[in-house]
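Customer ticket, subject: "Can you confirm the structure for Disulfide bond formation protein DsbB?"

Message body: Hello, I'm evaluating your service for our small team and ran a test protein. I'd like someone to confirm that this is what the system normally returns, since I don't have a reference to compare against.
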Amino acid sequence: MSVETLNYLLALGVLAMQVAGAGFLALYFLQKRFTDLQDVGDLLSRWGLWLAFLLTLAATVMTLYYSEVLGFAPCGWCWVQRVFLWPQALLFAVALWKQERSVADFSIALSIFGAAAALYQHYLQMGGGALIPCPASGAGDCAQRILFELGYVTFPLMAATLFGFLIVLMLYIRKR
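Agent reply: Thanks for trying us out. I re-ran your input and got the following:
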């Protein structure tokens, strides 16, 4: 599979995650009003940790694939996002093993900071001026777009979407 095809498939996945995340967030606030939708909320509460684990594991593997196999050097802001993403895969694995649901608060905190870093880098890659310098020297340029699909999807936007989706999933986990 070519890099362009992989990029396009990932962008489609991000688009699907954005739509699903917005729908699940609306459902979270409206499910008391629409009792017919409570089954979906129950499903997310029951399987949310597994979904979060699989998504963070896949994202971790993909970041390593792009940097270590394909040779795309991660910039400073990419590393900041990785700091908030990678531990969550381990966090969810331990939570599943221990059957511990209180992990949701930790995931929300990590995801808020990760999303902030990702959205700032997306702002840079869409042509915004630097408000904060790139946090690493000698690495890739933080404002350089390596991936640009569907007219708006960049690597940082992929990360921000995942962090946002994790926050929504963790709302369901906390509720249960």
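A couple of notes from the result: Residues 3-175 form one domain. The chain has five helices and no strands. Feel free to reply with more questions.
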